[in-house]
Specification:
Blueprint (H helix, E strand, L loop, with lengths): L7 E3 L4 E2 H9 L5 H7 L10 H26 L1
Helix pairs in contact: 1-3
């Protein structure tokens, strides 16, 4: 059985992976935008590197998905 793990990304504001991914899916492209999506602000900044990495991963997934669709359509 698949188990979903929710890891805390921002201890200061209580943002976990699900909340960060929800913000990214809604269009957030920076740590500040992720926090704004949840009506919070960056506090200590230790989450920023992780949030940026999650944004980059999502962008790569989007690019890869688009490439697969284009190849399948050819």
């Amino acid at each position: 059985m698949l188990q979903i793990v929710r890891m805390i990304i921002c201890v200061c504001r209580g943002l976990n992976t699900t909340k960060v991914n929800d913000a990214i899916a809604a269009g957030a492209r920076s740590p500040a935008q992720v926090h704004r999506h949840h009506q919070t602000t960056i506090n200590c900044g230790k989450c920023c590197e992780t949030v940026c990495g999650m944004i980059r991963e999502q962008a790569q997934d989007d690019v890869c998905s688009a490439q697969r669709v284009m190849v399948a359509a050819e």
